[in-house]
Design a protein that fits this description.
Blueprint lengths: L14 E7 L3 H12 L4 E5 L6 H4 L2 H18 L14 H12 L5 H9 L3 E4 L2 E5 L2 E4 L2 E11 L4 E2 L13 E2 H6 L6 E5 L3 H12 L3 E5 L11 H13 L3 E3 L4 E7 L2 E6 L4 E4 L1 E4 L3 E2 L26 E3 L2 E3 L10 H16 L12 E4 L4 E6 L2 H6 L4 E7 L4 H6 L5 E7 L4 E9 L2 H13 L4 H5 L10 H7 L4 H7 L5 H12 L2
Parallel strand pairs: 1-2, 1-6, 2-3, 6-18, 8-15, 9-10, 9-15, 10-11
Antiparallel strand pairs: 4-5, 5-6, 7-16, 12-13, 13-14, 17-18, 19-20, 20-23, 21-22, 22-23
The structure holds flavin-adenine dinucleotide (FAD).
Length: 487
C-alpha cells in the first residue's frame, strides 16, 4: 500500500512515522510539511482541524476589526474632506466571518489533510507510552516521535457567582449572529481590547474591567495611554485597578459588582481573562513529563523528551500564531534532519489590532531595565512625523529601546494606524541586532509611517523634522550613544 506521496505506508496501521496530537494552527502546518516530505503522519484532533487561529482567533477577529475600522474611518471624513454618515450592520460582518470559517466546519481542512496523504482521527487523544497515543479504542505508535500541539483554553477566573450566570468567552463573540445592547468585558489584554472596540463601533455599550492599573499591561505605558484615549473616543468605559466582588443574574441583566461599591449592569458578560494550556489529561507522565506544570518545557529544537516535541501555545513561549508556526518549522527541520537555527525569542513581534494598532517587539523599557541593560530611550510622537501630520492623527508613538553597550535596539513599540506594519522594520532591527548607526545610514521612503523611524533616529531630515517637533530630544540621545561607541 502506498500513501499519496508514493511512499510505502506503514506495515501495520498502528505504526506511523509521526503522531501529531492536536491538529490546530501549528499541528496542521507541521503535518502538511511532514506529509509533503513523504512521512506517514497521523493527526489526532479533538475539535476543528486548523484550531484557534482560523476559527476563533486571529482571522475571524481581524475580519471583525476590519469591519469596525471601516465604520470609524468613514467617520474621519468629517472635518477632513466632506461629510459621511454610516450605519452599521453586524449581519454583514458576521456573514463574512461565517463564510471564512465555513460555518465553523473543518471539512475542507480534513479533505486537504487526507489528500496530502495524512490520516486524521477526530477525538481526544492522550499519550499512553513514550511514543504511543491512544484515541478512543485506537492506539498509534510513532517511529520518529509524537508532537504535542494541544493549544490553550480560556482562563475562567474564580469570581463568586460566575457559575450561575451564562457568560461568554471570546469564542462566543466570534460566533455571534446578533449583538447585545450592552456588554461588560473582564480583562484588558489584546483580545478583550480588540473585540471590545469592535463591539463599541457596532453600537454596543462596552465596559472593560481590569485588575491592573492600565489596559494592555504587557505593552509600554505610552501605548496603554493612547489606546485608553481612543477607547474614550469610542465611548468605551474602562474601570482600572479594581477587583470583581461577584456577579449575579437580575432579570435578564447580569450585575457585575466591583470592590468599592460600583455596580455594572449589562446584557452580556464576556471573559477575556487570558488563555492557558491544560496539561492534566494528556498522559504526559507516560513520556516522563510533568502534567502539573503550567507549560510543556522544550529545548531550542522544541524537544520535550526522547521522541516527544511540543509547539505552540502549550509551550507558553508567546501565545501567538507566528510563534507557533516558527516552532513548527523548527520541528519539521529536526524530524527531517534539515538545518534550522535553534529557537530564539529575543525578537518576538506582537500586534494588538486596536485602532490605533499597537505593535511591539523585544523588550519594553521597564523589562530592559529589569534585565540589566543600560538603556537609552527614544520616543517620537507619530503626529510629529511628516506622514502622521499629513494623516491628521493625534495619538501615535514610536518608542525605541537601545542598549548603550552594543548600540543596538533591544525593543521597540509603534502605535499608530499601521503600528503592526511599521513594526516589520523594527523587528528586523531587533532580530538581527542591527547597529543604530547602520539604521541611520539607510534610506527611508518619504513621507511614510516607516519613515517615521528614520525621523526618530535622525536618518534624514534632521533640519526639517525639527519644524514639526522642535522639542524632540531623541536625536541628541542617539548622537551621544553612537559617538560614545565610536560607530
Ligand atoms: C480572540 C483571539 C484572537 C487572536 N488573535 C491573534 C492574532 O491576531 N495574532 C496571533 O499571532 N495570534 C492570535 N491569537 C492567538 C493564536 O490564535 C494562538 O496562539 C494559536 O492559534 C495557537 O496555535 P496552537 O496550534 O498552539 O493551538 P490551537 O490552534 O488552539 O490548536 C490546538 C488544537 O489541539 C486540539 N486538542 C486539544 N487537546 C487535544 C487532545 N487531547 N486530543 C486531540 N486534540 C486536542 C484542540 O482542539 C485544538 O484544535 C488569538 C487568539 C484568540 C483567542
Amino acid at each position: 500500500m502506498m500513501n499519496t506521496n508514493g511512499n510505502p505506508a506503514a506495515a501495520h496501521d498502528d505504526y506511523v512515522d509521526v503522531i501529531v496530537l492536536g491538529v490546530g494552527t501549528c499541528g496542521e502546518d507541521l503535518s502538511l510539511q511532514l506529509l509533503d516530505a513523504g512521512l506517514d503522519v497521523v493527526g489526532i484532533e479533538a475539535a476543528l482541524v486548523g484550531g484557534t487561529c482560523p476559527f476563533y482567533g486571529c482571522l475571524p477577529s481581524k475580519m471583525m476589526v476590519r469591519g469596525a475600522n471601516l465604520l470609524k474611518e468613514a467617520d474621519r471624513v468629517n472635518g477632513m474632506s466632506g461629510q459621511a454618515r454610516t450605519s452599521s450592520d453586524w449581519n454583514q460582518t458576521a456573514g463574512r466571518v461565517r463564510q471564512l470559517t465555513g460555518g465553523w466546519n473543518d471539512a475542507g481542512a480534513v479533505e486537504r489533510y487526507e489528500k496530502r496523504g495524512g490520516r486524521l482521527i477526530h477525538g481526544k487523544g492522550k499519550l499512553t507510552g513514550p511514543r504511543t497515543v491512544t484515541v478512543g479504542d485506537k492506539s498509534f505508535t510513532a517511529r520518529k516521535g509524537v508532537v504535542v500541539a494541544t493549544g490553550a483554553k480560556p482562563v475562567i477566573p474564580p469570581v463568586p457567582g460566575l457559575d450561575k450566570v451564562k457568560y461568554w468567552t471570546t469564542d462566543d463573540i466570534i460566533e455571534a449572529d446578533s449583538l447585545p445592547e450592552s456588554i461588560v468585558i473582564l480583562g484588558g489584554g489584546g483580545a478583550g481590547c480588540e473585540l471590545g472596540q469592535v463591539l463599541a463601533r457596532f453600537g454596543v455599550r462596552v465596559t472593560i474591567v481590569v485588575r491592573g492599573d492600565r489596559l494592555l499591561r504587557v505593552e509600554e505605558p505610552e501605548a496603554s495611554e493612547i489606546v485608553e484615549k481612543a477607547f474614550a473616543d469610542d465611548g468605551i468605559k474602562v474601570h482600572k485597578g479594581v477587583k470583581i466582588k461577584e456577579v449575579e443574574l437580575r432579570g435578564s441583566s447580569i450585575i457585575t459588582r466591583l470592590d468599592g461599591g460600583v455596580e455594572l449592569s449589562s446584557e452580556r458578560l464576556v471573559l477575556a481573562t487570558g488563555r492557558k494550556p491544560d496539561l492534566t489529561n494528556l498522559g504526559l507522565e507516560s513520556a516522563g513529563l510533568d502534567s502539573s506544570a503550567k507549560f510543556i518545557e522544550v529545548d531550542e529544537r522544541m524537544r520535550a523528551a526522547d521522541g516527544v516535541w511540543a509547539m505552540g501555545d502549550v509551550t507558553g513561549k508567546a501565545m501567538l500564531t507566528h510563534v507557533a508556526l516558527y516552532q513548527s518549522a523548527i520541528i519539521a527541520a529536526d524530524i527531517l534532519g534539515k538545518v534550522h537555527p535553534p529557537a530564539e525569542y529575543h525578537s518576538v513581534p506582537q500586534v494588538t489590532f486596536t485602532d490605533p494598532e499597537v505593535g511591539s517587539v523585544g523588550l519594553t523599557e521597564s523589562a530592559a531595565r529589569e534585565a540589566g541593560f543600560d538603556v537609552a530611550v527614544v520616543t517620537k510622537q507619530i503626529a510629529a512625523t511628516f506622514r502622521g501630520m499629513l494623516h491628521g492623527i493625534s495619538g501615535g508613538v514610536i518608542k525605541l529601546i537601545a542598549d548603550r553597550r552594543t548600540g543596538t535596539l533591544v525593543g521597540a513599540t509603534a502605535v499608530g494606524p499601521p503600528g503592526g506594519e511599521i513594526l516589520g522594520l523594527l523587528t528586523l532591527a531587533v532580530h538581527a541586532r542591527i547597529p543604530i548607526s547602520k539604521l541611520r545610514s539607510m534610506i527611508y521612503s518619504f513621507p511614510t509611517f516607516t519613515g517615521g523611524i528614520g525621523e526618530a533616529i535622525g536618518a534624514y531630515g534632521r533640519g526639517v523634522t525639527t519644524v514639526l517637533d522642535p522639542e524632540y530630544t531623541g536625536l541628541k540621545e542617539l548622537d551621544e550613544l553612537i559617538e560614545a561607541l565610536g560607530a
